[in-house]
Design brief:
elongated
């Protein structure tokens, strides 16, 4: 077995303070968007098993199936909430960055 060849990469990135803050805010926004998609998917999962999602042929056959889906959605939403809290901390940290002294 041989080792992979990793090229010597020396990136030169030239961004200023304002660009860094904007990139941090954009990354938080994209993570929030991803969480919104996850929450929407979980809502559609519940609609599907209840039979209220148009075009879905998946319906729970008994209460145990409903409870299993509910537990699954609950776990996923708890994880999303934890991520949301971390994103809130990140946002607060970005907003607390003091203004540049060179302005």
């Amino acid at each position: 077995m041989s080792f992979p060849n990793i090229p010597n990469v020396t990136p030169s990135i030239d961004i200023d303070r304002e660009d860094v803050i904007n990139l941090l805010l954009a990354s938080i926004a994209f993570e929030e968007l991803g969480l919104a998609h996850i929450i929407n998917a979980e809502a559609e999962k519940i609609q599907a098993v209840l039979g209220t999602l148009p075009g879905s042929g998946v319906v729970a056959k008994n209460i145990c199936d409903l409870m299993d889906v509910n537990d699954s959605v609950n776990k996923t939403l708890k994880t999303a909430l934890k991520t949301q809290m971390l994103l809130q901390f990140k946002l607060e940290d970005v907003l607390d960055i003091p203004p540049s002294q060179n302005s």
